[in-house]
Amino acid sequence: MWLQVSLLCLSCLILSCQSQAEDRASLRRSNDPTGRCHYTFTVASPQESSCPGGGVKPEMDGVLSRLTLLEALVSRLIAGADGGTGGSAIESNGEEGLQEAYAQVTGERNQLQQDKERLSRQIQELQRRVGELSQEAESLRQLPCKQTHTSGGAQRESRPASDPAYDFGNGAYQEMKAEVTEVPASHLIPEGNHNFTGCGELLSVGDPVLHRKADSITGKYGVWLQDPEPQGPLYTNKTVWRIDAVGKDVRQLFAYEDMEQFSRGFPMKVLVLPEPVESTGATMYRGSMYYQRKRSRTLIRYDLASESLASRLDLPHAGFHGQHPYSWGGYTDIDLAVDEQGLWAIYSTSKAKGAIVISQLDPESLEVKKSWETNIRKNTVANAFMVCGRLYTVASYTAPNTTINFVFDTATGVGRAVAVPFKNKYRYNSMLDYNHARRKLYAWDNFHMVTYDIRQGRASHGSS
Fold it and tell me: Where are the chain's structural domains?
């Protein structure tokens, strides 16, 4: 019985020989006298009528090596089949092996082709960016002078040759940027005046937007915010500030260049505060951080530019260290807040018997300018914040769907119940602060630092 061996090299050889003469190649199987099976493969030379005598030894060595390889291949084919399987099974196994090998080679080739195309795209993108940067550099070289606009058109203002921005040949990096001066709304509005557009009562609060999640137990609750009215070039309204409030001696104040670096967890600086911080009632305003000193009613103003204590003062009769906290506890007796009207303290006293007291503070000296006593108990609400001189309280710090349940207007001295939906998405909201420059609420909800957009009604021209 003939055995067709489907090996790539042997197939090519057999087909080549068969195309010249059908009887020149054969593969034969037979038993020797001892009963052992032998395979005999015969190929006639297409050119030589007899074997040359000179190079017999090297040629025999080559034949032996090829026979050895052939025997190994045949042994692999036979080993893949059962002992009683015929030639058709050997042929099938051989074809399957070749198909698997071909499929593997094809897959690797396709992968290499995909990698080549990906690298080509990356090279094209880099070349495009290099071209854009070259054009931008060229345009900067052509604009060495700043322009001022007059009624007759654009007029160029000459600069002296000593101007550093004029010297492009010194090899130093020159940064060109536009500077925009922001005028805070509180500078344009008379103190205590609510009769302006954009400072109506709070109508709705949006869903929380996540910016970062704390990665350790010290970030269970804390403070994070941005200064609505920064006072210098060192820190801007983009700078993000953060304090992890869990710990025995909380003093570290992390500064991040912008929201992107904050989200990635890369602080540009870590400041060490002169006194430890109590809880989550700190706030930022006009280049200073305001906070309550641990285990005391002392308020501290920390100047960010000089990194020093600028002023300190006791808040008269204020409860502290668990005497009049919010409902979630955490020694939240004194909560500092900022809005369009300025700096505020939200707290209580023994005289007020736990009811919320609101005091407007002088941002330089921390002295109390005026106070209001409300009729809502501080330990029955989860948190509070100020918007346009109005106090708003939140009913629950754990309920995923709760409400802003009370408003007190310092312009009229009147408070009333409201029901503005509010979400505690992560079910442990320990800090809530308003940024009037961005019209957002900043919150720290169970390791998660989030913001809420707010919507206000039109300002009324009478009492609220």
Answer: 213-456
pLDDT tens digits, 318-376: 999 999 999 999 999 999 999 999 999 999 999 999 999 999 999 999 999 999 999 99
Sequence-distant (6+) residues with CB within 8 A of 410 are 192, 341, 358, 360, 372, 389, 390, 391
Domain topology for 213-456 = Lipocalin (2.40.128)
The predicted-structure confidence for 35-44, as pLDDT tens digits, reads as follows 777 767 666 6
Neighbours of 459 (CB within 10 A): 16
pLDDT score, position 197: 44
Residue carrying structure tokens 């500078």: 187
Amino acid at position 7, single letter: L
* Integer Cα distance of 464 and 415 in angstroms: 9
The number of C-alpha atoms within 13 Å of 452 and in the hemisphere containing its C-beta is 26
**Cα gap 334→348, rounded to integer Å:** 8
Beta-strand pair 368-377/448-456: unpaired
336 C-beta neighbours (distance < 10 Å), count: 25
Q: Tell me, letter by letter, the H, E, C secondary structure of the chain.
A: CCCCCCCHHHHHHHHHHHHHCCCCEEEEEEECCCCCEEEEEEECCCCCCCCCCCCHHHHHHHHHHHHHHHHHHHHHHHHCCCCCCCHHHHHHHHHHHHHHHHHHHHHHHHHHHHHHHHHHHHHHHHHHHHHHHHHHHHHHHCCCCCEEEECCEEEECCCCCCCHHHCCCCCCCCCCCCCCCCCCHHHHCCCCCCCCCCCCCEEEECCCEEEEECCCHHHCCEEEECCCCCCCCCCCCCCEEEEECCCCCCCEEEEECCHHHHHHCCCCEEEECCCCECCCCCEEECCEEEEEECCCCEEEEEECCCCEEEEEEECCCECCCCCCCECCECCCCCEEEEECCEEEEEECECCCCCEEEEEEECCCCCCEEEEEEEEEEHHHCCEEEEECCEEEEECCCCCCEEEEEEEEECCCCEEEEEEEEEECCCCCEEEEEEECCCCEEEEEECCEEEEEEEEECCCCCCCC
Look up residue 10 and give its two tokens: 């042997």
Q: What is the end-to-end Cα distance of the chain in Å, rounded? A: 107
Cα 458 to Cα 464: distance, rounded to the nearest angstrom = 11
Task: Output the pTM of the full model.
Answer: 0.59
| Main-chain phi, psi angles of 285, to 5 degrees | -165, 125
Alpha-carbon torsion, ordered 162, 165, 169, 171, to 10 deg: 120
